[in-house]
Amino acid sequence: MAVTAAIEFDSVAYAYPDGVKALAGVSFAVGPGECVGLVGPSGAGKSTLALALLGFIFPQQGRIRVDGIEVTKKDLRTVREKVGLIFQDPDNQLFMPTLFDDVAFGPLQHGIEGDELTRRVNAALAARGLLELADRFPGHLSGGQKRLAALAGVLVMGPQVLILDEPSSNLDPQARRALINHLGSLPNTRLIAGHDLEMILELCSRVILLDRGQVQADGEPDLILGDPRLMLGHGLEVPHSLLARAHTHDAPRRRAR
């Protein structure tokens, strides 16, 4: 029995009103529970792809499906219940007087109240190590705490798919490591768009390289991120860890000559 893809783009094209082709025939599928890195230079189409997946814009050609449901105006509510977005700047997601209120906002919109609301919110906060901060004003949290709070506010809704836009942006090393550990423990399908290639290399089992609105490469992270010609050709650099690994592997051969 065939497994329904968690995310499916089928020849998706979209151009902005000024004529810029942001997506030009994008096709790929992501399986349930898969963690995929979406990389590419600025302006490659990554943000447009995320907007289209959530139904903020609709393809001018092609189709997008989430768990087999096409992203259309008719089914937009169902699709958005299945997909959670973590913004690059968590301040765009945290806007309530307390952290508890922020995480409770989504469930409240779906009619969840009372003891069940408290249980769900406390569980989401506890899972991210934030329960003791439930009464704090989100604006007073550290950058790492804000990122985890935004994650808790999305995960409390039980989405099947997570889209993360530059999730490690502006984090110190300790907060970045904590976020990586949390993201690595999740069973959700994850699409991580960003320039932190070391993070993507550690978390993702697959990388999609997007440039000029097209999929330029799709495969194993080591093979794509470790290809100097491919990376430089699309305005990117090989992660230092892969360069160091290649240097270590080449060293005995150089000595043997």
What does this structure look like?
The strands form 2 sheets. Strands 6-7-8-3-9-10 form a 6-stranded mixed beta sheet, sandwiched between helices. Strands 2-1-4-5 form a 4-stranded antiparallel beta sheet, covered by helices on one side. The termini are far apart. The protein has a domain at 7-91 and 163-256: Rossmann fold (3-Layer(aba) Sandwich), CATH 3.40.50. With 257 residues, it is α/β, with parallel strands linked by helices. It is globular and about 55 Å long. The protein has 10 helices and 10 strands.
Q: Please provide the ordered H/E string of secondary-structure elements.
A: EEEHEEHEHHHEHEHEEHHH
Name of the top-level CATH class of the domain at 7-91 and 163-256? Alpha Beta
Largest sheet: 6 strands, mixed
As laid out across the biggest beta sheet, the strand order is: 6-7-8-3-9-10
Proportion in β-strands: 15-25%
**Portion in helices:** 25-40%
Task: Give the C-alpha Rg.
Answer: 20 Å
Shape: globular
Instruction: Assign the structural class, choosing from mainly alpha, mainly beta, alpha/beta, alpha+beta, or little secondary structure.
Output: alpha/beta
Number of separate strands? 10
Classify the fold: give the CATH topology of the domain at 7-91 and 163-256.
Rossmann fold
- The CATH superfamily of the domain at 7-91 and 163-256 bears the name P-loop containing nucleotide triphosphate hydrolases
The CATH architecture of the domain at 7-91 and 163-256 can be named as 3-Layer(aba) Sandwich
Mean pLDDT score, rounded?
92
Distance between the termini: 54 Å
